[in-house]
Design goal:
The protein has 700 residues and is α/β, with parallel strands linked by helices. It contains 21 helices and 33 strands. Strands 8-6-5-3-2-1-22 form a seven-stranded mixed beta sheet. The chain has a seven-stranded mixed beta sheet with strand order 9-10-11-12-13-20-21, with no helix packed on it. The radius of gyration is 35 Å and the shape is elongated. It comes from Rhodamnia argentea.
């Protein structure tokens, strides 16, 4: 088994990406897009004139194509960090750059762990020669498809503004243009090592973006919760709930020589999604731990944590109680309550609230809590959800009980809705519209209001238009998730004169530090594979497992898990076997004939209609040939011979012993450690000698 980490990701919206080689099959785990990199592009300007802007745009491109001396000057001039430094072009999207170093046609399987891990999939499915089998949970496939459709819908504004796509690479990819970018933006484009420019791609395929998405969705095999899929009879793949989001999962991969558990970002006690089912990962041979979402973990470790590894005396029940303790879940609820109180205070003061948070679970919980806070304060303001897929998205979340937490499943059994937005829609306290310029929205628009809309990058979607509208209102509030550079993200909205309040918040996106070692202690893998930077955080607490650290873009080869191979023999084959006991070796042997097949990740022998041993086949013999016994047996059969010391065999080698037969006619026996060769002109004599040899050796 080999593991290559292609990207360690950047949290919830950009999960890690790995390539796994098992039994000769290449398995790609997740294919995300780094949408935070959209920050280097300028949003569509307000009140633009398409013709005028195209003229200005063409002029700026012409300037960049000027004489060499002009370019030489530009190389040494770094633009100041302001709105003019942003790239004024149709955005490209940043994929996993290291994935492009691989031949995509050699990928056999793709596993998608979350809706965010699916956004880059159309770039693969449209690639020439790509034919991998794609596995994803039903819920993640549906939510991921809606996210892709919404992204295409929001991107359409750029296509209308900038017109047809440029041939080849866009102007901003020219080196002189990249050199003039502010250093912070240049790092986003090129990466810290300056090698990520090749990861930028235009959004899906123009003009067939919708067709790309549909083609991608058709190629994916949707799995129900814990449904087992068998690939090529060799690998069994099963999704296990991770608790991160509705439809998000970890994977178990079983193959003939062992079991691999892949753990991505997970939550033990979520308030919306089905909890992390860690019990399904117990006693795996290999545990790949790729939860890098809690970025403050390393800082905490460097500062020194008061957490100590579990003692050997800790019982399994003690550790499980620690894992399922809902302290971080309570903290998350406190955050949501605080956000809701800030939102209500803003609308009470006469301001509006903009919430461009892309997490489905957080959005659904905020809708519930804000409506409760508004009702308790007896303050009525409209709540809008603006998205091209909002109506379908909200409807779908109410029909997937197998992927929500137990508390919400119980609500369904009691005849209630899984989430409160159903009642809010029925009571017209929540209004859903597909676009910011929807005629019905303009008809019912009222301020102050609370608006949920994409996109959290603040570069596309309704959020851009509303932020421009309210950025000068000191009573209004922007609720924005951490994860992007605020200095760059707010550049288009005049941050120096921006009066709108900004509430930056972070949400739990993985396993907290104090629960990592107890989890590993419970799972008890033979090999634990965390990323290299966690050496100080994840270390073996006992000799029961080995830790092998891996690094980005380096291949880690795992030692062989089993010395031999296991083989299953069906009962009908066993009933036809004839065993012979070898007393000296304390062993039983038999001749076996059947069909060797790979089925359900196991090697099996199935019954064959042919006879187990035909008369024409020589018997299988074992044991050491005692030459003195052989001479005695030949003498009893009337065959005389003697052992020739220092003789050379017919092939010129002297590592064999030679027995020469002189009566009743001449023959020669060459006895080696693994074979005995009989040479005789008289065929009948040769058969008699063979029978003598067989009578001394154990055969079957």
């Amino acid at each position: 088994m080999k593991l290559t980490c292609l990207s360690r990701g950047k949290g919830f919206y950009f999960p890690p990406c790995h390539m796994l080689n098992v039994c000769g099959f290449r398995i790609l785990i997740d294919c995300p897009l780094d949408l935070s990199a959209l920050a280097v592009f300028a949003p569509i300007p307000p009140g633009f004139s398409a013709v005028q802007d195209e003229e200005d745009f063409g002029h700026s491109v012409g300037e960049s194509d000027g004489c060499e001396s002009g370019n030489e000057e530009r190389k040494n001039i770094e633009k100041p960090m302001d709105a003019k430094a942003l790239i004024r072009s149709e955005p490209w999207y940043k994929t996993v750059a290291n994935l492009h170093l691989w031949n995509l046609s050699f990928i056999d399987v793709v596993l998608i762990s979350s809706p965010s891990g699916m956004l880059g999939l159309p770039f693969l499915t449209r690639a020439e020669g790509f034919s991998a089998k794609i596995y994803v949970t039903e819920a993640a496939a549906k939510l991921g498809k809606l996210m892709m459709e919404d992204l295409v819908s929001m991107h359409e504004e750029f296509r209308q503004f900038y017109g047809s796509e440029e041939l080849g690479s866009p102007h901003w990819m020219k080196w002189e243009e990249l050199e003039s970018l502010p250093s912070a933006m240049k790092e986003i484009v090129l990466g810290t090592d300056g090698i990520e420019l090749g990861g930028w791609m235009p959004l899906y395929r123009v003009p067939l973006s919708a067709a790309d998405i549909e083609d991608c969705a058709k190629k994916a095999q949707k799995l129900k919760y814990a449904e087992v899929a068998c690939y090529n009879g060799t690998i069994n793949i099963k999704p296990i709930s991770s608790g991160l989001e509705i439809g998000a999962c970890n994977w178990t991969i079983r193959y003939p020589d062992g079991t691999i558990a892949f753990v991505s970002s997970s939550e033990f006690v979520p308030s919306h999604a089905l909890e992390f089912n860690y019990n399904a990962l117990r006693s795996c041979d290999v545990l790949i731990y790729s939860d890098f979402s809690s970025l403050d973990i390393l800082e905490t470790a460097n500062k020194g944590s008061n957490y100590t590894a579990p003692e050997d005396s800790s019982t399994s029940s003690d550790l499980e109680e620690l894992l399922l303790h809902a302290d971080e879940s309570s903290e998350e609820m406190d955050k949501l309550n605080f956000i809701c109180s800030c939102a209500v205070d803003a609308v009470k003061a006469g301001g509006s609230v903009l919430i461009p948070i892309g997490r489905l679970g957080i959005m659904l919980q905020l809708l519930e809590q804000i409506s409760i806070c508004l009702e308790s304060s007896q303050h009525k303001v409209p709540i809008f959800v603006i998205s091209s897929v909002a109506e379908e998205l909200l409807a779908y979340t109410n029909i997937i009980p197998e992927w929500v937490c137990k508390q919400r499943q119980e609500k369904l059994f009691s005849g209630e809705s899984l989430f409160a937005h159903v009642e809010l829609l029925n009571g017209e306290r929540l209004q859903v519209y597909p676009a910011i310029y929807s005629p019905k929205l303009l008809l019912h628009w009222q301020e102050p209001c609370i608006v949920f809309c994409p996109h959290w990058s603040l570069r596309l979607g309704p959020a851009v238009h509303l932020l421009r509208r309210w950025h000068g209102d000191e009573k209004s509030l922007l609720i924005w998730e951490e994860g992007m550079d605020s200095d760059i993200a707010l550049l288009p909205f005049e941050p120096k004169v921006m009066k709108m309040k900004v509430l930056r918040c972070s949400f739990l996106s993985g396993i907290v530090l104090k629960k990592v070692q107890p989890l590993i202690h419970i799972l008890q893998p033979k090999f634990l594979l965390p990323e290299d930077f966690r050496q100080q955080i994840i270390s073996p607490v006992s000799d029961s497992y080995s830790v092998l650290h891996y690094s980005v873009n380096e291949t880690l080869k795992l030692p062989t898990l089993k010395e031999g191979s296991e083989l299953e023999i069906t009962a009908d084959v066993i009933s036809r076997l004839h065993w012979k006991n070898l007393q000296e070796q304390n062993l039983s042997i038999t001749r076996l004939k059947g069909n060797l097949v790979m089925c359900d990740a196991r090697r099996r022998i199935l019954y064959s209609d042919e006879l187990p041993c035909s008369n024409s086949e020589p018997p299988l013999l074992s044991g050491a040939l005692d030459l003195q016994k052989l001479l005695t047996r030949l003498s009893e059969m009337g065959i005389g011979g003697s052992l020739q010391e220092g003789s050379v065999t017919t092939d010129g080698l002297s590592d064999a012993r030679v027995l020469r037969i002189d009566a009743p006619s001449e023959a020669l026996l060459e006895i080696r450690s693994t074979s005995t060769i009989i040479s005789a002109a008289n065929e009948e004599l040769a058969f008699h000698i063979r029978d003598a040899v067989n009578s001394i050796l154990d055969g079957t």
